[in-house]
Amino acid sequence: MGLLGAVLRLKSGASSPILMRNRPRVSAILHRLIQDGHRKLQVMIDFDYTISRYSRGGVPCDSSYQVVEASPLMPNGFRKQTLSLRQRYLPLFENQSIPEDIRQELMQTWLRQSHDLMRQYHVSRKDIPLMVKLSSAALRSDVPEFLTLAQEKKVPVIVFSAGLATVAREILRANGCLLDNLTIVGNDLLVDSHGLVTGVRRPIVDGINKSRLLASSHADYFKRDDHEERCNVVVLGDSTGDAHVTDTMRNTKAVLKVGFFVQNAVDSPSLLDQYQDEFDIVILDRESFSVVKELLRLILSLAQPRKTN
Prior knowledge:
two-stranded antiparallel ribbon
């Protein structure tokens, strides 16, 4: 029970249990991560509601898109129209009874319309830092410490997101977390010569295609000399699609998948069951990163450097 016992003792709060369906598998992966050490390791993290908080004290927090869409800097007409789009499309996207290709088509339509409204209402790139400051978006507690741990051991971290990467960078920057080992992939805002938003860089990343696009559009990242040999991966996400981010990567050996379940477990037992099928470890927590921080600390502290002849 050694390693698993250590993992089970990691607590982010009394009401935040850690679930593991296949404990022998988790134990085997942890042993491999520790055996191979930090030079073989990389971390891949979703942004919205994984790095960022889902809620604070029970009050929902803004996502990266909502930082702009709900900003008091924007006119009422803009806020009303973007909220109407969210209320229309989000329930459809989250409806698992709708075929995936239809849900993705709906998501793409929603995002295109949202980007069009940003263009029509002249969202300014220079306003993004203030929008972040005025929003309820926030990092989970212990995210800065987690990222610092990775940086100290030169472990690369790639943040993959279907949200606004431009906003994600500003949130991380505002918290002193835009570190040199960090790469952020998502929907980057495009601006004209006046700094006004004209759209986002194509292709548009959504919650379904982001894993595939990460591998195809950032192939050079994974082929870099310092990353190509990093065959072990810790994946962190809050949706079941995040668990598949390494599916198209070559040469992976040990992949530890950790999922944050931010829904109500009592109201969504079948969804929680699905999360336990997809993720090696499921954490029921909306605000804290302390479990994965201590998990990374455990892996790095027990890792033994390989001896060279």
